[in-house]
Design goal:
about 350 residues, alpha/beta, five-stranded parallel beta sheet, 10 helices
């Protein structure tokens, strides 16, 4: 009788769990992607999210928010997008105050019954998605680099030294997507319908936006450049980084830096590549005077071709590099510039 008393509830509980799981797996997939913009153009991170959503399957909707929604036409033109939801107002003017964004996403999920919500693994996405998870009591899956099926995803752990495959059992799956892991969707070719997002009870922000400082430059953006030339501690000084800029200009690329170089004051924070900096995956990555610390490798290991220049033949960067040159960078880099 004791076995019966404990066994039957356990069997019922297992059956109910199986029923819930079966229901969520057979639910038609549909994805809502939080759109970000670079000026008036859809950002590369959002285009990569659309590609990830295509791998999941089902309809794809983009949520466009801001003080105004003039960018909605650009969002509607993205290939593969079926619908564009728009929400405008002063409360959406600054993406760094995200409490309004998560409240709006929650209302969209409630009305649209989306099975997945995606955002880029950017400063905005990494703020909004965890906040939305807390509000909806859902556990997000962060930094996704591959989609196996509707519920199964691959993400890096241990600073990118290992990959783990995780399966979500949530009814609505929340994801942040590593932009460099998915090819960006085409900016044109789509003809999505547009409509207003559902009304949402927006909270009073718990912080105030002070200011945003954006440095304007005619140089390629570090995260979207096809070629990146990065320098490490071996550069010696900030003045020597001009060598890298000259090489990058020849290659129509961008300049990056290791954390060691940034901490030493040789390069500004916005150039840092690595686990605590920017993650890049250019066609060509040239590491100059960089030893290859795990923290740095995590931010550039997905580059298509990696070239390392270091006078220390035992530097760990050579284990990752496709091509390596053991030489004094102050001799090798000027020669490369001259040849180009």
């Amino acid at each position: 009788s004791t076995q019966s008393t404990w066994g039957i509830p356990a069997m019922l509980s297992s059956a109910l769990r199986s029923r819930r799981c079966f229901g969520s797996l057979t639910r038609a997939a549909s994805s809502l992607v939080l759109a970000e913009f670079s000026g008036t153009a859809v950002s590369p991170s959002t285009l990569s999210c659309v590609t990830a959503a295509k791998a999941i399957g089902g309809d794809i909707s983009l949520l466009v928010v801001g003080k105004d929604v003039k960018n909605a036409d650009a969002a509607a033109a993205v290939a593969g997008v079926n619908n564009v939801l728009t929400a405008e107002g002063a409360q959406f003017e600054n993406a760094c105050v995200t409490s309004s964004f998560s409240a709006l996403l929650k209302a969209c999920v409630a009305e649209g019954k989306y099975s997945h919500v995606l955002a880029g693994a950017t400063s905005v996405g990494k703020d909004v998605i965890p906040r939305l998870g807390g509000e909806m009591d859902l556990q997000p899956v962060s930094d996704v680099i591959a989609v196996r099926n509707e519920k199964t995803f691959v993400r890096p752990i241990y600073a990118g030294n290992a990959l783990t495959t995780v399966q979500s059992t949530e009814a609505t799956v929340l994801l942040t997507v590593r932009p460099t892991a998915f090819e960006p969707a085409a900016r044109t070719g789509g003809s999505a319908s547009k409509k207003a997002a559902p009304a949402a009870a927006l909270p009073t922000p718990s912080c105030d936006f002070v200011k945003s400082e954006v440095k304007k430059s005619d140089k390629p953006d570090l995260q979207s450049a096809r070629v990146v030339v990065s320098g490490g501690r071996g550069m010696g000084s900030a003045d020597n980084f001009k060598l890298l800029q000259d090489l990058a200009d020849k290659l129509k690329g961008a300049v990056g830096a290791s954390r060691a170089a940034v901490d030493a004051g040789m390069a500004p924070n916005e150039l840092q590549v690595g686990q605590t900096g920017k993650v890049v995956a250019p066609d060509l990555y040239i590491a100059v005077g960089i030893s290859g610390a795990i923290q740095h490798i995590a931010g550039m290991k997905d580059s298509k071709t990696i070239v390392a220049i270091n006078k220390n033949a035992e530097a760990p960067i050579f284990q990752l590099a496709d091509y390596g040159l053991v030489d004094d960078l102050f001799k090798a880099v000027p020669e490369m510039i001259q040849k180009l």
